[in-house]
Design brief:
The complex is a heterodimer of chains A (127) and B (183). Chain A has 127 residues and is mainly beta. Chain A has one helix and eight strands. Chain A has a single domain, classed as Jelly Rolls. In chain A, the strands form two sheets. Chain A has a four-stranded antiparallel sheet. In chain A, strands 2-7-4-5 form a four-stranded antiparallel sheet. With 183 residues, chain B is of the alpha+beta class. Chain B has one domain. Chain B has a four-stranded antiparallel sheet, with no helix packed on it. The termini of chain B are close together. Classes of the chains: A mainly beta (127), B alpha+beta (183). At the A-B interface, helix 1 and strand 5 of A face strand 1, strand 3, helix 1 and helix 3 of B.
Chain lengths: 127, 183
């Protein structure tokens, strides 16, 4: 039986104008990735300063310089509609890579922050 | 099989009223342009407040303060408030795109900054500040459908932000062209 699950992966941005890349592995029983969402503990910094590249199974879904604000949803959006729809991607080797770039923006002052990548997945029930 | 992809182009604006002509090169296997999005980043810090805050639609003339009976004064006050509730969104510039195969622009938009009226209609007063990054809607591309066989898009951008503030503001506009690629 298939069931929906959400996965969260975090990266830390500790320096202004830096690039942080990390690779995460999805569970083996995940069969589809339906959506993607990014959030942060300091969401104004993510909104104004962030860009990222996201790859799933070595396939690029969002290229370098794709702004984080385009993948964010505020609390005004219904919870079930917050994820960016990828249309059911097969995870292949299950490796998800995020390359996040922080860039100065005149409206913000840098402080260390966390970027969270959420994936809306469908997995095979183990039972 | 068709696959979606996005081409990102950045335009740097440095002077007030600056007009930029640019080209966006698409991959050779592009079949259609299916969507357009835009974003931006402020580079010069000195004008940060001007960029972020939208001007208020405040009344230009002072209201008479004396010799008005009380009921009339109340009515005038309400009218003034209704004017100031809504704020004008800050216009950043104008963006137009043209395909090499067809005449006329296929995409034209006014580029706006943050939604200045996002707070309007929030009656919670819970001390949770309303901002684009907390209460903003999910962004999606504007859907277009244009043949892309010549693989070049001509673009035109005109600054309005620096012009309206009468100061040179250094910022970047990012244009996202969503395409259909044949695999």
């Amino acid at each position: 039986m298939l069931k929906a699950t959400k996965k969260r992966f975090d990266i830390k941005i500790t320096q202004a104008n830096s690039t942080v890349s990390d690779t995460f592995e999805l569970d083996k029983n995940i069969v589809k990735v339906h959506g993607v969402l990014v959030t942060s503990d300091k969401d104004d910094l993510l909104y104004y300063r962030g860009t990222q590249k996201i790859e799933i199974n070595k396939e690029e879904f969002f290229p370098e310089n794709y702004e984080s604000k385009l993948l964010m949803s505020g609390i005004n959006v219904a919870p079930k509609q917050r994820y960016y729809d990828l249309g059911g991607v097969a995870p292949g080797n299950g490796r998800v890579q995020i390359t996040y770039k922080d860039l100065d923006d005149g409206r913000t002052v840098f402080a260390a922050y966390r970027v969270s990548l959420y994936l809306d997945c469908e997995m095979e029930d183990e039972l | 099989m068709m696959k979606e992809g996005v081409i990102i182009t950045k335009i740097s604006i440095k002077r007030q009223g600056e007009r930029k002509h640019f080209q966006i090169k698409l991959p050779k296997d592009t079949k259609f342009i299916i969507g357009i999005e835009y974003g931006g980043r402020l580079i010069s810090k000195s004008d940060a407040i001007k960029f972020a805050a939208a001007p208020k639609a405040a009344p230009t003339e002072e209201l008479p303060k004396t010799e008005v009976i009380e009921s009339v004064t109340v009515a005038v006050t309400i009218e003034e408030r209704s004017k100031t509730f809504f704020k004008r969104n800050q216009l950043i510039g104008e963006l137009k795109l043209q395909s090499s195969e067809e005449s006329n622009w296929f995409y034209s938009t006014d580029v706006f900054g943050a939604d200045a009226n996002l707070k309007y209609g929030d009656f919670s007063n819970a001390g949770f500040n309303v901002n684009d990054y907390t209460h903003g809607n999910k962004r999606t591309e504007e859907i277009v459908k244009v043949d892309a066989e010549s693989t070049i898009i001509q673009g035109w951008y005109l600054d309005a932000l620096g012009k309206s503030q009468k100061v040179d503001i250094n910022y970047e506009v990012t244009i996202y062209v969503w395409i259909n690629v044949e695999e």
